[in-house]
Specification:
This protein is an alpha/beta fold and about 450 residues long. It has two domains: about 250 residues, Aspartate Aminotransferase, domain 2; about 100 residues, Aspartate Aminotransferase, domain 1 (Alpha-Beta Complex), CATH 3.90.1150.10. It has 17 helices and 14 strands. The strands form three sheets. A seven-stranded mixed beta sheet has the order 4-10-9-8-7-5-6, sandwiched between helices. It has a four-stranded mixed beta sheet with strand order 1-2-3-13. The chain has a three-stranded antiparallel beta sheet with strand order 11-12-14. The longest helix is centred in the C-terminal third of the chain and has 22 residues. The protein is globular, with a radius of gyration of 23 Å.
Length: about 450
């Protein structure tokens, strides 16, 4: 594609006028935006998305072009409304555009959106203190970034720096991010295999099997493969809301202490109320050595992530505080967003809401399973991280597609729909949960 400065200028002006409200959103303009969005994905982002996304393949004449949202309702460019049961895969734990988070970000945006990199910034320091008060055990120090995979990268790097060891043990089916280090400990071949070799000395145990994890630790110790830490999700999210046995996390804590390795909890998806407690590990009263955060930390407004650990472990970062840095991580508007989000979480007790609504929703879904045993194999999860496993991916996809046509957005795509996720805002009204179950039943009936 040859360079064309004038075309670039015109395209920037076109979209900026729309964003700023200078262009009236007539029906013609709305249809132009929808059509152009599909063309731009095809020509400038990735053609694969147009087959992968439900919004582009089954939305009718014009693909669903996300434009606005509030709470648990998403409205597309043409005014079509969808109940959001996906929640950005955990991003929207407080719903879309929670007013208190938006207010805090707007206030900070008009004060200072970024920092100088040289002066001390109070919001980053305050976010560290607040999280130090909320995290379990002796966790006290933290570093903030932008995405969940950056939080995991930092956690792995810290573990290696502190222990002087290079190895890790992860779990089969795990998802920790797609940058090189995070990908190295992911338990899914579809993302790893095309990019091998990644970091060496990474081993895997079946998720939820503490005996298998101990065997991996024993083998590594026996043959001299030094292990810095084990990294585990409190509940496996991308794998389909897999909940481990109740003794799993306590046993991980005990064996890590016994073998002298660090316990790393990947709380990117489970943190900040998603599974019915502030953090996933709180479900089993376990304090890890290192925690990684992301998704809901930013309140669904400004991306924010991080990793935290104890004062003892963090000492290895002090001789050279520039050992791990990022220019935009922990910026003022991100920290303002995170601090406001934590305030809402505590004021509205969203972890409790998640626990209660999760019990309610899984109960409703299990009633559906009992009525249609030839369609749904299992309903599982914790809090509002719920997985619905269908008999096969084809049935799952057609059910999800049927729900989408009826105005409910949930997990499950053309490529991966045997298990779909229900992961709405923790503030979602009960009537929307009921409506979702009703619509799912209608979509199931279409397949009988």
């Amino acid at each position: 594609m040859p360079r064309n400065i004038e075309n670039a200028k015109a395209e920037v002006q076109w979209i900026n006028n729309i964003i700023s409200g200078k262009t009236e959103l007539t029906q013609q303009v709305k249809e132009e935006i929808s059509t152009k969005t599909v063309e731009n994905f095809r020509d400038h982002i990735n053609k694969g998305f147009l087959e992968y996304r439900k919004s582009a393949t089954i939305a009718g004449d014009f693909a669903m072009t996300e434009w606005s949202g509030q709470g648990s309702i998403i409205t597309d460019m043409l005014g079509r409304e969808f109940i959001d049961m996906l929640g950005g895969y955990g991003l929207y734990s407080l719903g879309i555009r929670h007013p208190k988070v938006v207010e805090a970000v707007n206030a900070q945006l008009h004060r200072s959106p970024q920092y100088s990199q040289e002066l001390l910034d109070p919001l980053r320091a305050q976010l560290g203190r607040v999280l130090g008060e909320l995290t379990p055990g002796d966790i006290q120090y933290g570093f903030f970034a932008n995405s969940g995979t950056e939080g995991v990268e930092g956690a792995l790097k810290l573990a290696k720096l502190y222990t002087g060891k290079s190895g890790f043990i992860s779990t089969i089916g795990s998802f920790h991010g797609k940058t090189a280090g995070s990908l190295s400990v992911m338990g899914k071949s579809v993302y790893r295999k095309p990019l091998l070799p990644l970091l060496g000395n990474v081993k895997y145990a079946p998720y939820g099997d503490a005996d298998a994890m101990e065997i991996e630790l024993m083998k590594a110790a026996t043959v001299g493969d030094d292990i810095a830490g084990i990294i585990v999700e409190p509940v496996q999210g991308e794998a389909g809301a897999i909940v481990p046995p109740d003794d799993y996390w306590p046993r991980l804590r005990e064996m890590c202490d016994r073998y002298g390795v660090l316990l790393i909890a990947d709380e990117v998806q489970t943190g900040f109320g998603r599974v019915g407690e502030i953090f996933g590990v709180d479900c089993w009263d376990v304090a890890p050595d290192i925690m990684a955060f992301g998704k809901a930390l930013g309140g669904g407004v400004v991306p924010c992530s991080g990793f935290m650990s104890t004062a003892k472990i963090w000492e290895c970062m002090e001789p050279n505080p520039f050992m791990h840095t990022t220019t935009t991580g922990g910026n003022p508007i991100a920290c303002a967003s995170a601090l406001a989000a934590i305030g809402v979480m505590l004021e509205e007790d969203t972890p409790k809401q998640s626990a209660e609504k999760g019990i309610y929703m899984t109960g409703k879904l299990n009633e559906l399973k009992d009525r249609y045993p030839g369609m749904i194999k299992e309903v599982r999860g914790k809090g509002l991280l719920i997985g619905i496993e269908f008999v096969d991916g084809e049935v799952g996809y057609h059910v999800v597609a049927g729900m989408f046509k009826r105005g409910v957005l949930t997990g499950g795509t053309l490529n991966n729909a045997q298990t779909i996720r229900i992961e709405p805002a923790l503030t979602v009204p009960y009537e929307l949960l009921d409506k979702t179950v009703e619509i799912m039943e209608e979509a199931i009936k279409d397949q009988i």
